[in-house]
Specification:
Elements: H1 2-14, E1 21-25, H2 30-33, E2 40-44, H3 60-78, E3 83-85, H4 91-100, E4 105-109, H5 116-121, E5 127-130, E6 146-148, H6 164-170, E7 179-182, H7 190-202, E8 210-214, H8 220-223, E9 231-234, H9 240-246, E10 249-252, H10 256-265, E11 269-271, H11 281-291, E12 296-297, H12 305-316, H13 319-332, H14 337-351
Helix pairs in contact: 1-14, 3-4, 6-9, 7-12, 10-13
């Protein structure tokens, strides 16, 4: 949802006459986000395809029929000049219906392994914008499809980031000691959190290394006991930019938007991909960065408190390696992705 909002905002910034219209799922995150935004929208009864709980797919035919009927009504009423999809189970049917009406379609694929909607619609799209250049090898674009390595839409870092030491001090940490930031996504990661807790309890967490630890709201009470002058568990970090500005090393999942932010900030990272992510796409994301020297990958199945602590210790002990990882991450960064995607997509409108 956030990439779609970022692209819409960028389009309006480029051309104030543009009026974005969003189509999403009644049960998706968009149902919570869109009411707080200024744009018009329609929420339809789209259902995901359940791979593990397959019996839930019994609802698919009915929800698909209702959703397609709603899509036809929206397209007839709005008569859009352009359709942009950023993933999610509502994107595929919406873009398919738009393409069937002759509306130019644009795909924005966030992950190194493209989602099913991007793979299926690649041949019909006018443009495909990739968050990871590695995704190109998995696609079969049409003869007239333009494939661009545009990156993932994020809020870019400020032009003047200041000194890391000052940022650490501003966060209430010792300015001269290294700071590790642990992220598990907005909901936190029990696997990463437990490994961090084990490292602290066992005494294997590196001496003198400070820790800013986003636990997630649901599990914060379980880990708040570890709070000290050098270890700060927090349920959620907002704004995240202040944490990035103070950080030397990040331990995180391998979601596409997090990785785009880390690249833009040039932050070395230890990535622990979520093994149950759809099509194991987080592992593909982490491998892409690790193979390009832009991160270190640690598989969840082999992660313990001791192994995580050792990965942190070994990286912080090698400033030259940290600098190389940082440089490789910056080389992949596309901090202006939202405006670049918007500008390229709007070319299709001017040609139609």
């Amino acid at each position: 949802m956030m990439p779609a909002l970022a692209i819409a905002d960028a389009m309006v910034a480029l051309d104030a006459s543009i009026e974005p219209y969003f189509v999403g799922a009644e049960r998706g995150i968009e149902a919570k986000v869109l009411p707080g935004r200024p744009w018009r929208y329609a929420l339809l009864p789209f259902e995901p395809i359940y791979r593990r709980q397959w019996w839930k797919n019994v609802r698919l035919p009915w929800s698909a029929w209702r959703s397609m009927r709603g899509l036809r009504q929206v397209l007839a009423a709005e008569d859009p000049m352009l359709a942009v999809g950023t993933g999610g189970y509502a994107a595929g049917p919406a873009l398919w219906a738009a393409a069937a009406r002759g509306v130019p379609t644009v795909l924005q694929e966030q992950n190194a392994f493209p989602g099913i909607a991007t793979r299926r619609l690649a041949g019909r799209a006018r443009q495909i914008h990739l968050g990871f250049p590695e995704a190109r090898a998995c696609l079969k674009p049409g003869a007239g499809t333009e494939v661009l390595d545009s990156g993932n839409p994020i809020v870019p870092p400020p032009a003047n980031r200041g000194r890391k030491e000052d940022a650490r001090k501003g966060q209430g940490f010792e300015s001269t000691r290294p700071l590790v930031l642990v992220l598990g996504g907005s909901q936190g990661s029990v696997a990463i959190n437990d490994a961090v807790a084990d490292a602290i309890q066992s005494g294997s967490w590196p001496n003198g290394v400070q820790l800013l630890w986003q636990t997630g709201h649901g599990t914060f009470d379980r880990y708040r006991q570890f709070s000290s002058s050098v270890i700060r568990p927090q349920a959620f970090l907002d704004p995240i930019a202040t944490a990035y500005a103070a950080t030397d090393l990040v331990v995180a999942r391998a979601g596409a938007m997090t990785l785009a932010e880390l690249a833009a900030w040039g932050l070395p990272a230890i990535l622990v991909p979520l093994p149950t992510a759809a099509a194991d796409h987080q592992t593909s994301n982490a491998k892409a960065l690790a193979q390009s020297g832009a991160a270190v990958m640690l598989e969840q199945r082999s992660m313990t408190g001791a192994s995580l602590a050792e990965a942190v210790r070994s990286l912080l002990a090698e400033p030259a390696r940290m600098a190389q990882i940082s440089s490789a991450a910056r080389a992949r960064a596309r901090p202006l992705a939202a405006s670049d995607i918007a500008r390229a997509a709007l070319r299709l409108v001017s040609k139609s």
